[in-house]
Amino acid sequence: MTAQSPDLGWLGIIRIGLVNMSLGSIVIQPFTTFNQAMTQDLALMAMLPGFLGAIYYIIQLSRPRIGHALDRGTRKTPWMIGGIGVLALGGIIGAAAIVLMERHTLSGIAVAVLGYFLIGAGSATTGTALLALLASRVQPHLRSIAAMVVWPMMIIGFAVTGGVVGALLDPFSTERLFVIVTAVGIIAFTLTNIALFRLEGPAAAATAAGTATEEPTGSFRAALQEAWRDEKARRFTIFVFASMLAYNAHEAIIEPFAREAFELTAGEATQLGGMYLYMGVLCGMGIAGVAGRVLKGRLGSLWTWAIGGCLGSGGALGALGIGSFVNEMWPLAPSVFLLGLANGVFTVAAIGLMMRLANESGEARSGIRIGLWGAAQAIAFGLGIFLGTAGVDAFRYLLGMPTAGYNLVFTLAAGLFLVAGWLALRVAQLDRTQAGDTPSPIADTEAWTGGSSP
């Protein structure tokens, strides 16, 4: 058996997307189904799922070390298979913990800690290896398309699992939950193995698309310091943190805001978030992915779409805040759709840029950068959800107005999106300057198009 080409084509990208869908089908359960089971069915304190979720986010800080380990190896698919296996095992243990909580609460919580630890470790490993593989094996002109394909498939994993699990859970019992979660884990692990079968061949190719063979980095600390000393990588890390903090500060409060400010029912608010927001996200991802492949010059630049997505997200959030004062006269659903559209645009553009920037110092240093940006994203994710929800309560209490907390959080998140757009602009200017100093016309083209054809 001979090694495959180092480049991933359309089929390879779709196969990686199936892995991301498998990841999404498992990782969504601890934050939805498990939360509801603990708080609603077992009548446990709401802080319990919050504590367990914090374990998940703390484990995400291991992503840089995982990326460094990837840099020192040759193949990434074993890491993805192992990561999904650990993730599935963690989900099964988490479901078993809920069964145990029904009889022995403290013992169940102790088992749940192990389950959430494994869920965090499995998702960190799979996600880091997945993005590192895309960064090293996808040709520049396909990077925006790869992001457009792979990340919506995670959302599909969220949606399909939520719908199927929700339909099968009634009548609810913890034993039924355990059986369903176990089945989802087995299916996801099997699908991952099928999708990755012989994707890299017996050994990974020595060169990535457009990169030369290099010796792997030294110690983890030295590799991390080297990545952080790189001005472009450091600025991009700050951009990722700021944009994802703004994104997650508003995402968790859209539905409660709609119920309180616009007097929607629970079903109408859920439909607003599930249909209009995520439909907008998927459309935005598609637009940015196609634009990065089809459009020429700066119109097709992933930097342009990243900056535009941040500015659009800030404007859409500001409009939502204004809309709460107008109430029923405001077109709420279109506003939420436009917010999702802008979110999707900047998400795909940022992921496409990650793929390119990760390889600028060579494939042997791409994993540590992917891990650094993944850790920044994970910290922003957990912190954004906490600050967004806590900010609503704090501002509402201080100002004594029901919707004031939402409006202020939206305003702050909008301002943070504008800051993120400015940060992206500064990285783009540095990128253009460095590319302009490079005699290769290809490097200059890729700096502004993210790999689209000149």
- CATH class categorisation of the largest domain: Mainly Alpha
- Biggest sheet layout: none
CATH topology of the largest domain: Growth Hormone, Chain: A
Number of strands: 0
- What's the N-to-C terminus distance? 37 Å
Q: What is the CATH H-level superfamily of the largest domain?
A: MFS general substrate transporter like domains
Uncertain residue segments: 1-5, 204-213, 437-454
Globally, the shape reads globular
Keywords:
454 residues, mainly alpha, Growth Hormone, Chain: A, 2 domains, 17 helices, disordered N terminus, disordered C terminus
Report on this structure.
This protein is mainly alpha-helical and 454 residues long. It has two domains: 9-203, MFS general substrate transporter like domains (Growth Hormone, Chain: A, Up-down Bundle); 216-454, Growth Hormone, Chain: A (Up-down Bundle), CATH 1.20.1250.20. The protein contains 17 helices and no strands. Helix 5 (77-101) runs antiparallel to helix 6. The radius of gyration is 22 Å and the shape is globular.
